[in-house]
């Protein structure tokens, strides 16, 4: 009798195991690769990840019976590592979308590879102007972020019109990102002739002080700065080391908000140093919150493991942009029929992104056809945000980011 019961139990166990195994094998999956600097600028990488996961959680990470997986790919700010991730993506039969990260150089340097290999790249942070402007109507890169061709205008406008700068100088990182900003900012400043100062990654205090001392001796009345959090902290702390009446106001690109920046410059910020930086024009701190904002916050907090409250992130714009961009992606997917042919899926989604037939409610705004077919006559075809969506901001004493309203009547 005992033997019979034992055999029945064993039989049920193997039947259940087989059934579960068969079920697991039948689960269809698609994957989003997130190529970002999780090593040196984890704050921005984490924020983008949480924004995307929050949007996916709203549809239970499932589209048309496919489970959506999210994979972190740490490029460490290295273009060659990013290229390796792209190659891995293209070999993965489940890889649907390549979500970009903080740094622009990987996507500027590898732009031909991306488009020639039909790699579907969505960019929620990297701001380099050339990234989305591949000269082919079948452009595979879409951005919802700050765009240098507009950022330079907003920063120059703030410097000259709000702060009244008459002798600005540029202080730019010596990378493709910095070089694209040199072109955009020089154009935005028009007839104002400016000196350009360059610095390399991993600049240290002494070198930063030498550059700033020269800028101060040139009697510059403001600095337009382009760099990331690590170098930005060295520049800001170097400026704070000068006596207050020698300091020059700094108008920065948003790269400084991509890492643990405020923690490293808190003392400098509280010493009356003038620092402003560009952001998109949405804040979780705006009161009263809309119904959508409240729902997004609650969804983010319900993730497992729990997300940091979006308003407490060091790089909130990463969350905001990735959330809105993922919502747009999901609308594009809904306009296609997914199959097991991953290349066909990517091609159909790329086409749908250019022809969205429903408005999408995002945190920054409601998007009505944010993308169209790229052409030389419409260089912004793959840019979801316009100049009117970009604002200047500053830090509050507690490290929170305060968005400033744009000048009334400013060109949008």
UniProtKB/TrEMBL annotation:
Keywords: Signal. InterPro entries: BCAA_transport (IPR051010), Leu-bd (IPR028081), Peripla_BP_I (IPR028082). Signal peptide: none annotated. Gene3D superfamilies: 3.40.50.2300. The keyword Acyltransferase does not apply. CDD domains: PBP1_ABC_ligand_binding-like. It comes from the Bacteria. PANTHER family: LEUCINE-SPECIFIC-BINDING PROTEIN (PTHR30483), PERIPLASMIC BINDING PROTEIN OF ABC TRANSPORTER FOR NATURAL AMINO ACIDS (PTHR30483:SF6). This is Leucine-binding protein domain-containing protein. It comes from Pseudoalteromonas fuliginea. The lineage of its organism: Bacteria, Pseudomonadati, Pseudomonadota, Gammaproteobacteria, Alteromonadales.
